[in-house]
Amino acid sequence: MYTVDYSKPQEPRLAEAEDGARLAAFDARVAADDFIEPKDWMPEAYRKTLIRQISQHAHSEVVGMLPEGNWLTRAPSLRRKAILLAKIQDEGGHGLYLYSAAETLGVTREELIEALHAGRAKYSTIFNYPTITWADIGAIGWLVDGAAIMNQVALQRTSYGPYARAMVRICKEESFHQRQGYEAMMVLANGTAAQQRMAQDALNRWWWPSLMMFGPPDDSSPNSAQSIRWRIKRETNDELRQRFIDATVPQAEALGLSIPDPELKWNEATQHYDFGPIDWEEFYAVVRGEGPTAKDRLQARIDAWEDNAWVREAALAHAEKQATKQAA
Ligand code: FAQ
Asked: What's the pTM value of the predicted model, to 2 decimals?
């Protein structure tokens, strides 16, 4: 069995068994944009990088259900409640596809979940911020799902087959998530003065953390260069962040809301928006587990796992009973 090892796979170190010919064949397949499949030979560092990234992604989806779950009982209408329920359910599904993709690399779901609960595994910084008002639910759909899609569209062509295929379906669902969030913001932004203030306040609080979702700047991103070579990542953190800003600023303008960045300015020469400095100290503090809601989020996951142990036990007992019946 593969043990979850979150130590950094900086450079591909070849074990003796991983001979040059197999590595050359692997590199050629990646360069030809072929998908690598679970039974194919792959360098150990490639496998470790994938387990790290896919499991962090899976954990993000599942922890990401919590900030929105906070508003399920307080959604302003039955329609909004039904939409939010469907969205949160989709996120649980995304977690399951991604855990399944990670399992094809020889790690078990229990090991991955244990690593999350023990604080050894990361999940996206964005889910360590509180959802204070209903507008935060609109802002999450618009900005957080918007940022997630920007990153995940590229991952549909990631080099590992099971991850790429999971991303195709996830992207379709994320697209609906983003639109429903934008539509909720549109209603607030065109509503009463109090609703407009609520929408602006949500944008003010979610804007910078959304930019941080793309990860550290390229010159401080230890994994990017190798992941791009392996075509696990298809674009860099900074490229995707810039694309997100370029797409989102006109959306904010259409809502009549202001992006909370006094340095934000269209640059005719680069054909991109210039933007102000991101507070990377805040990002690293949240990555270290010091985010405003970090402890609550992790505790909620641990409680859910423990309180619902009986469901897993019942499902396993049922499966065993069915297997015995079939064998008889
Ligand atoms: N949060 O060298 P890099 C969603 C870590 S899904 C926490 O640049 P890499 C859906 C990084 O792990 C959102 N940690 O790393 C939804 C690494 O640490 P390590 C999740 C972060 O992997 C919406 C270290 O910093 N999406 O939102 C973050 O090449 C609404 C150095 O960084 C994915 O996971 C961060 N933001 O690039 C659900 C997409 N950024 O492991 C509910 C897949 C970086 O070496 C509601 N993942 N770190 O100790 C990726 O594309 C990449 O993993 C990146 C990071 C781009 C996130």
From this structure: 0.93
